[in-house]
Queue: 2 jobs
Job 1
Amino acid sequence: MERPALLIIDMQNDFVCEGSPYRVAGASAVIPKIQEVLAEFRKRKLPVFHILRIHRQDGSDVEIIRQEKFKKLPFAVAGTNGAAVIDELAPRSGEFILTKTRMSAFIGTELDLMLRTLGVTTVFVTGIQTPNCIRTTVFDAIAYNYPAVLVDDAVGAATEEIHQANLRDMENIGVRVVTSTDVPGFLS
Amino acid sequence: MERPALLIIDMQNDFVCEGSPYRVAGASAVIPKIQEVLAEFRKRKLPVFHILRIHRQDGSDVEIIRQEKFKKLPFAVAGTNGAAVIDELAPRSGEFILTKTRMSAFIGTELDLMLRTLGVTTVFVTGIQTPNCIRTTVFDAIAYNYPAVLVDDAVGAATEEIHQANLRDMENIGVRVVTSTDVPGFLS
C-alpha cells in the first residue's frame, strides 16, 4: 500500500508576497489549493514537510552563480520575516520543517532519510516554482524511487506557459499529475 | 582561471541509432557538433567524460517507474552493443567513462569527486536528451557549484520545441548557453 507524504516547497514571504522583488507571479493563486491539500493530509495525520530555502546572512551558502544577485538584494535570510512560511500555510506542531540552500529538496537535506524512516513510498509535491525547485525535487524523487505526484493547481511558476511546458516534460517521464480536488481520492 | 571538462551524455547506440525503439529523434543531428567540441577538448588535452546509462540485465537497478517498460523491452544493458558509445564518439585512452543508472550524471556516480580531483571548475554539457539527462545534470552541476555551459547545438531532444522550452528555463537560472562554434573561444 502506498504511504504518501506532502511536500510544500518554498512558500515563504520573500517568494510569495506582493511587493517582494523575488515574488513568483504564480505563487498567490496556489495558496488556497495548497491549503486544501494540506487540510486533507492533516485530517488523515499523514506526514507534511514544509521545505524552505534558508540562507546565511553573508550569502556564503548561496549557489555560486547566484551570489552576486544575493549580495545586491538578499533573499530568504535566516531569521527574517521574508524567510518565514506565509501565514496561510503556517506549520503546525508535528509537521516537519526542512531547510535547504539549493533547488532540490533532496540536496543537502535529511528529506530522503526522513521519508525512509517514516516508511513513505510516494510524495505529493506542491509549492513554487515549477521549473526550478519543484521540477528538481520531482526528478530527484523519481531517481530515489518515490513515484512523485505533482498537484498541478497547487504548483506555480512565473508564467502559465512555463508551468505547462514543464508539466509536459514531467508527464513524459511518468510523473503522475493530478489536481487538488483529486487528492482525497488518492489518499483514501 | 576556469578549468573546463566536457561531459558527453548517453550517446549510446540504443538511444541514437536508426531503428532503435528508444532512439531520441534529435540525437543524430548533434553527432557532428559533439565531434567538433570533442576535437577541441582533445586538442587541448582537457578532461573528457563519456557518461553512459548502463543497466543490469535483470533491470533491478532501473528507476521503479520505468521497470515495467524495461521488462517489456530492455535498454542500455551492460555488455550489449546497444549500451556501447556510438562509433562516431568512441572514447580514447585517457578519457573517463562513467556509468549511471539515473538521469543526472551526479547521482550515484563518482563525477563530482573526479571533477574536484581534477580541479575542474566548469562543465560543458553535450548529448541527449535535453529535458531529462541533460537538464538534471545541468541543474545538479549548478547545485554543486560548477557553472555549467550548455552547448545548444550539441544537445538534442525528441522535438525542437521541447529543446527550446528547456533551454529557456536553463537560461533563466543563469546557465550559459553557447553553440559548438563558440567553444574554442571559451577554451582559449
Job 2
Amino acid sequence: MSVEVERKFLVTSEAWRAGARACRIRQGYLCLGADATVRVRLADDAAFLTVKSRTEGISRAEYEYGIPFADGVAMLETLCTRPIIEKTRHFVDHGGRTWVIDVFGAHNDGLVVAEVELGHPDEVVDLPPWAGEEVTSDPRYRNSALVSAPLGSGCDI
Amino acid sequence: MSVEVERKFLVTSEAWRAGARACRIRQGYLCLGADATVRVRLADDAAFLTVKSRTEGISRAEYEYGIPFADGVAMLETLCTRPIIEKTRHFVDHGGRTWVIDVFGAHNDGLVVAEVELGHPDEVVDLPPWAGEEVTSDPRYRNSALVSAPLGSGCDI
C-alpha cells in the first residue's frame, strides 16, 4: 500500500512537450464505490489492477498490482464500465519533480491535465509556466468521474 | 483468467468432517457491481484479490491474484463493505473430486454450504450423502449476497 498525495492542474500551452517521454494508457473501472474504486489499466504493454480509497483531502490510499496483460485486456473489454478512458501520458521534469501530463482522447478528447505527486500534502511546488487552474479538489477531473461525465470538446464544463 | 464452473449444496449432516482439511477465511467486497465483483480474501496467512464476472448459468470468469497479506488486511478493514464474511473452509475428497465445505461464522453463523468445481457445466457429479438441497442458482447463497443479506441462525430464509 502507498499513500498517493498529488496536485492536479489544467494545462495552458504546449510548451511542456519538448523532451517529454510518453506512454499510451487505456483504463476502466470495475467499480466506482463510495469507499473504493478498482481500476484496470493497460500502459503500453503492461497491465495493472489498482485499488484506491476515497480521497481524503489531497491524499488517498493506493494498492497497485501488476497482472498478466491478457487479463487486463479481457477485464477492460468485458467487465469495466463504459466508456473506457484513453489517454497518452507524458512525463516532464520540472523544478526537481516529475510531472505527469495526461492528454485525453476518445470521450474526453481535448482535455489535458498535469499532475505532480508529493511526499506530503504541504510540500511547496514550483509550478511550471504551462500549469493553469488547479483542479486538485474538483471531482469532475477525477479519472473515475471522466467515465460517467466526460469532459471532451463539446461537453459543457 | 479461469472460468469457474461450480455446483453448490446445503449440507445435511456432520459426516463429512472426518479427515477434512481446514483453512480459516475472512473476506469482503470492494465492489458488488452488476457486471463484476471484486473480493479481498485472507486464507490463513495468504491474501488474494479476486475479480469475478456476473454468473452466466453456473459458470463465471474469475481472475485471482496473490497480494501482500498486510494489503489484504488493510483493504478488508478499511475499504470493504460491512459485514466481513468469516468462514472455515474444509476440503473433503469424495467420488474422485475435492468438495469444499464452508462453515460460516459471524453474521452467517449456522450456515454450511458445500461446493464442487467442475470442468464443464454438464459433468456428472457423484453426490455425497451429506449433500442436501442444491442452491447453485439461488442468489441468496452467493457469498456476495451474504454480506447484504446474511443467512445466519435466526435469519429468515
